Amino acid sequence: MLDGTQVQFKSVTLQKYFSAQNGGGLNVTVDRDNPLEWEIFKLWRVSDSVFQFRTSEGQFLTCSGDGSIVTATAESPSDSETFYLERNFNNRVHIKLKGGTYIQASSDNILRADFPGTPGWDDNAATFEMTIVGKMQGDFQLANGYGHDKAKEVLKKHRNSFITVDDFDFLYRHGIDTVRIPVGWWIASDSIPPAPFIGGSLEALDNAFSWAQSYNIKCIIDLHAAPGSQNGMEHSASRDGTVNWPTSPEYISQTLDAIDFLASRYAVHPALLGIELLNEPSAADVPLDVLVPFYKQGYKIVRKYSTTAYVIFCQRIGNADPFELYQANIGSLNTVVDLHYYNLFDRYFDKLTSLENIQFIYKSRQSQIQALNSANGPLVFVGEWVNEWNVTNGSLADYQDFGRVQLDVYNAASFGWSYWTLKCEKKHWDFEWSVRNNYLQLQPGVYVGKSRGKMISRVILLLGVACIWIFLH
């Protein structure tokens, strides 16, 4: 029951689902036999028993008081959009106003705050079945779910133990010369970050730079989470899966401020290799005519502090061609385009065999890297990849072959590659586990000491400032 959790409600008496007509902006009815998009509501968590409910179009459920009907017409939440949720162990719930009146499903298929007294858990008009159909596990969910004090305690313990100097020793011994470090935009106000975020990520980043310097390892700072979210995913610290960054000049300005903060703080640090301006903007939500001006401004900000740091532009995820960034003329000095390659997250890969996955790497990925390497423009960086796929019951030899072909192809990228991620509870996503258990076979001496225009290899490092799933490790 964290922020962004998607829920459906069904009346136990009418056996019909709540529905926000047109996805929001109109009344809420209780008349649907099958729940689809209009019948899904996203939680905004106030406390463990108090919530606001957001429709697919972004409006909030609202009720003005006793006897009033429930509509989906509020553009922002306040007291009238805040509800108490009572639950039993059979996924049954009651919903009541802050004043204490319970909502019921009436015989004319509407919701009204007029149930008399306190309902039990039998089949009555104020009892509903709640189904959870989706969850989010990001920074916002952790911080707002635990509350400030507990979240601070949890994150402090995590940051002090998850990534340590021993991990940099491991990377050094295995020939990795650079780490890519995701950060959230709130790092720029780390001492007092905006609610619900928790401070401490700046100290963790400083530690990483110090450890990296001691092992002659370079650092790429990756702005992984922007205010309002650039892709709606949990790793961008989205509250409920919506994408508000590209439509808000204020959010874009805050993002540029974060880049300015990071560039000014680390520009002269000997361990800095580059700054990635924004991770994985969504092609469906972030227009190119918004992204390119942002990238150009971010490039100028970094150049204000450094003429040598690489400035990295991540391609849009989804239906977008990385050549669009080569044609945009964003910057001329030490620029890089970041591509993310996964044989996952697309139904195309669902039924591929191990051999077909390998052939795809050679036929599709290799040709694209070769074409981009030959283009007149930024260097090419495979900024994320993983030795995992949808092949069931893959053997050790299968994973070794898949890893070998990816290393072979991605090594050819003019700026190298970065593995996602250094540590993870999912074994094959865990770089250290994969290397130690021989699923990923590195070639000694291949990954160190390359220069601009050649291969600079690297592995991603997560400090716990943008992704929740490492917190739960």
UniProtKB/TrEMBL annotation:
GO MF annotation list:
actin filament binding; hydrolase activity, hydrolyzing O-glycosyl compounds
Kindly give the CDD domains that the UniProt entry links to this protein.
Answer: beta-trefoil_FSCN-like
Q: Which GO terms describe its biological process?
A: actin filament organization; polysaccharide catabolic process
Domain Glycoside hydrolase family: from-to ranges: 163-423
Name the keywords, alphabetized: Glycosidase, Hydrolase, Membrane, Transmembrane, Transmembrane helix
**Pfam families on file:** Cellulase, DUF7910
The protein in question is named Glucan 1,3-beta-glucosidase A isoform X4
